[in-house]
Amino acid sequence: MSPERQKGESLGTFTVTAYNIANEADHSDAVEIPALGLNETYSHAFLKDILMQGSGVDKKGRLIQIDWGKNKPKGPTDTIFTYVAAIRGALGKLENGVSIAVDPTVVTAGTWVYIDTVGWRRADDTGGRIKGKHIDLFMLVPRAQAMAWGKKELQVWKEG
Fold first, then answer.
1. What is the CATH number of domain 7-21+89-159?
2. Burial 112-126 (b: 16+ CB within 10 A, else e)
3. What digits encode the pLDDT tens for the residues 48-101?
4. What ranges do the domains of the chain cover?
5. Three-state DSSP class for 105?
6. Which residues of 57-89 are buried (b: 16+ CB within 10 A; e: fewer)?
């Protein structure tokens, strides 16, 4: 049994936002198209959202990413997708309710941090818009739920 995490050095106040991956539940298009590599049909808008977000989750809970080894993404009808066991971010596997995206010059990859009112999270990803004291919480939820979480200014501590 591992020891309980302890707060260490305060990192100060961060802007904390939520991010999610493409979620089929957000798309109700009637027109579905074949998803190359998946042997399934999905809405054009959902596949386009996966292209924009890099990954997605279907209504059955299956995780989908672009198959980078087989193609260079072009559009929803000519990109090869694949089911994956886990979503991978810039720094490793993303876990719902655990992973955060950070600026690695502020929070080192793999570091556990305590976010006030949120709890313990691990730096598993980076993002183009993550600069300075900004954290994105990875949430495997429909877009509306991630957006409802909003933007908060919260205190953050490194694990001690």
1. 2.40.40.10
2. bbbbeebeebbbbbb
3. 999 988 899 999 999 999 998 888 888 999 999 999 999 988 888 999 999 999
4. 7-21+89-159, 22-86
5. coil
6. bbeeeebbbbbeeeeebeebeebbbbeeeebbb
The pLDDT value given to residue 3:
63
**Helix or strand run (H / E) with residue 50:** helix 44-53
Tokens (6 digits) for 39: 């042997």
Which amino acid would we find at residue 131?
A: K
Separation CA 66–CA 2 (nearest Å): 36
pLDDT at 1 exceeding the cut of 70: no
User: Which token pair is 87?
Assistant: 């979503």
pTM of the model: 0.83
